[in-house]
Amino acid sequence: MPRPARVNPSRQKNPTFTRPQKPKGDHRARQPAHEYALEALPGLEEVAAEELRGVPLARDLRGLRFWYPGDPERLTRLRGAVAAYRVRAWDVPRPRGLLGHQQLGELTAFLGEVVRWGGHRSFRLAAAGRESAVMIRLAEELSRGLDLPFDPEEGELLVRLRPQEGGPGWEVLARITPRPLSARAWRVCNRGGGLNATIAYALHRLAGVREEDRVFNPMAGSGTLLVERALLGPSAAMVGVDIDPGAVACARANLQAAGREVEVAEVDALATGLPPRSFDLIVCDLPWGDAIGSHRANAALYPAFLTEMHRLLSRHGRLAVVTHEIRLFEGLLRDQDRWHVRELFQVYSGGHHPKGYLLSKR
Ligand SMILES: C[S@@+](CC[C@H](N)C(=O)[O-])C[C@H]1O[C@@H](n2cnc3c(N)ncnc32)[C@H](O)[C@@H]1O
């Protein structure tokens, strides 16, 4: 038997029917949206996606791609992603099609909008075959159209060309900021072995950000973990130490640039003299044995570190660690019964693939 036709309730004659109201609320939601994509370090995509879910007005989220009608400035404050891009696709079978009169005009206008907003002073192209005749021609045309120097290595406007995701054409991604988001404005002092700030952000997010935590950052280096935690919100207390006076000065300078008051002391993390159970959250980027420390020294440092942090951590406290000494660290944790261990992530960054762990007392 044929089904009775469905009646669209909004079309039913009804004396109480009124026209649908225009959406109320934030006027930005009615502005034209643009498509964006975030880039995260491999291994931290979910951290970046979780942060993106908290951006008001971001819609049609597909992993790290989304549509957004608001001011892009909000996207530059994301801390789990290394870069944010405007995205636009062209229905061309290969990049050569972007040199067509209409496509080139549209592409120049699209990039010009990004440059007007971001203030980039040069550009570069990232694409398979970027040395090809087509790419060289595209660079020349864009340089003329945008009135912007082409700098293939250091160009501030990073333009990525790649086959369209889920479509037949090619898409262009234009980084909205002249520098990556991971290059923080607060970093006025850098040191070899400094942690990528998005890894520090991820470690804190996954270890939990709690106002009541007394936070300790042994081996603070340039203070990346301290600054990123301080920017995430208040804590009951926070202190960092490093054995190297240069590192202490560097961490202090970065904290000051970030506008955060946190005590950093020149102290051996293994001999602080602090009473047991002084902290609820200890976060540490241990020496990896290449740029900082040596594998030989780490063989003695790591077990001593675990013993001392067990003493300093409160009964229900968390110890969050990032390290590239994976075999050494996991070996120590295999042969012990004092810690519960959870792997948080493994991330690929700058030729390294460190892991993050969360430990709690058994
Ligand atoms: C991997 S680096 C930390 C890098 C830091 N996360 C950053 O972003 O700059 C390790 C740091 O541990 C410090 N360190 C090594 N042994 C230490 C100890 N026993 N007590 C305190 N600091 C120590 C080193 O001086 C170095 O600054």
From TrEMBL:
GO biological process terms, alphabetically, are: tRNA methylation
Where in this protein does the record put region Disordered? 1-31
Q: Which domain of life is it from?
A: Bacteria
Which InterPro entries does its entry note?
A: RlmKL-like_Mtase, SAM-dependent_MTases_sf
Would the keyword Transferase be found if you checked this record's keyword annotation?
yes
| Location of the Ribosomal RNA large subunit methyltransferase K/L-like methyltransferase domain | 184-354
Which UniProt keywords are given for this protein, alphabetically ordered? Answer: Methyltransferase, Transferase
* CDD domains the record matches: AdoMet_MTases
Q: Which GO terms describe its molecular function?
A: tRNA (guanine) methyltransferase activity
The residue ranges flagged as biased composition, category Polar residues, are 9-19
Q: Please give the name of this protein.
A: Methyltransferase domain-containing protein
Q: Which species?
A: Deinococcus terrestris
- Source lineage: Bacteria, Thermotogati, Deinococcota, Deinococci, Deinococcales
